[in-house]
Amino acid sequence: MTDNKHVGEGRLAGKVAVVFGAGCVGPGWGNGRAISVRFAQEGARVVAVDKRPESLPETLELAGAFRANIETRICDVEDSAQVAHLVDMVVQRHRRIDILVNNVGGPIPGGATSLSEADWQRQLSLNLTSVFTTCQHILPIMESQGAGAVVNVSSTSAIRWTGAPQVGYAAAKAGVTQFGRVVGVEYAKKGVRINTVLPGQLHTPLVDAFLAGQQSAGDIEVLLERRRRRIPLPLSGDGRDTANAVLFLASDEARFITGTELVVDGGMSARCD
């Protein structure tokens, strides 16, 4: 991911963006890492947030010449007090928040009878309640500004079967999608746009770190080939594809778009076979 712009120029120049889930479980282009770097390249002041300190240095490294546009912060998005403290720090430092990206989440395998009740609650907390929590703290700031853009990262698991039973994840991500529609309408007259990106079966570090073990006995190539067969386009996407979609929805180019979704899956969800 390269860019010829100078620091301070670009489609998000002068905007302050908070990206939750800006680290990654391993090396490479995870969604949040790619979003943070892409925003920095486009001139935003990025507050890159993750609960794992070890996940953030590579985000800065991949930003290259634009790393000065990124500051990293540690916060557990499932802890409302931590989120409130972080938001206060950002407002004290930057005086505003223009963009919020919610990219926290992850699946636990299990169907309607095999997933434990505890894991069901964990999935709702991580994937859905976290979005509610950050919006509770940041939407009032955007409302007071009369402007803002929220982009929530859901999943194609919210709208279709994706090859493995993960009912908690699917239900939570479907909730994220509907949350964006309802809150998008609620906040439209207040100048705040809320949209949702639904990534499909991309090759991100999560695949190597967890999903191969869950779905293909640890064989990454078997899982990747299975996924490739579902995708009409003749290539595999990664976190950079998600980042470009999020960038568009966060930018003023999407000024007339709110309460809707953008699917990034290479055409997979259009198939009926």
Characterization of the model:
- With 273 residues, the chain is an alpha/beta fold.
- The protein has one domain: NAD(P)-binding Rossmann-like Domain (Rossmann fold, 3-Layer(aba) Sandwich), CATH 3.40.50.
- 43% of the residues lie in helices and 14% in strands.
- The protein contains eight helices and seven strands, in the order βαβαβαβαβαβαααβ.
- The chain has helices at residues 31-41, 57-63, 80-94, 117-145, 167-188, 205-215, 220-230, 239-250, and strands spanning 16-20, 45-50, 70-74, 99-102, 148-153, 192-199, 261-264.
- Strands 3-2-1-4-5-6-7 form a seven-stranded parallel β-sheet, with helices on both faces.
- Helix 1 packs across helix 8, helix 3 (80-94) packs parallel to helix 4 and helix 6 crosses helix 7.
- The longest helix has 29 residues, at 117-145.
Task: Summarize it.
The chain has 273 residues and is an alpha/beta fold. It has eight helices and seven strands; from the N terminus they run E-H-E-H-E-H-E-H-E-H-E-H-H-H-E.
Tell me the helix content: 40-55%
Count of DSSP H/I helices = 8
The SS-based structural class is alpha/beta
Number of domains: 1
Q: How are helices and strands ordered from N to C? A: EHEHEHEHEHEHHHE
> What is the strand tally?
7
Q: Mind telling me the C-alpha Rg?
A: 18 Å
Strand order of the largest sheet: 3-2-1-4-5-6-7
CATH architecture: 3-Layer(aba) Sandwich
Features:
single chain; 273 residues; alpha/beta; Rossmann fold; 7-stranded parallel beta sheet; 8 helices; 43% helix; 14% strand
Produce the secondary structure layout.
Layout: E1 16-20, H1 31-41, E2 45-50, H2 57-63, E3 70-74, H3 80-94, E4 99-102, H4 117-145, E5 148-153, H5 167-188, E6 192-199, H6 205-215, H7 220-230, H8 239-250, E7 261-264
Parallel strand pairs: 1-2, 1-4, 2-3, 4-5, 5-6, 6-7
Helix pairs in contact: 1-2, 1-8, 3-4, 4-5, 6-7
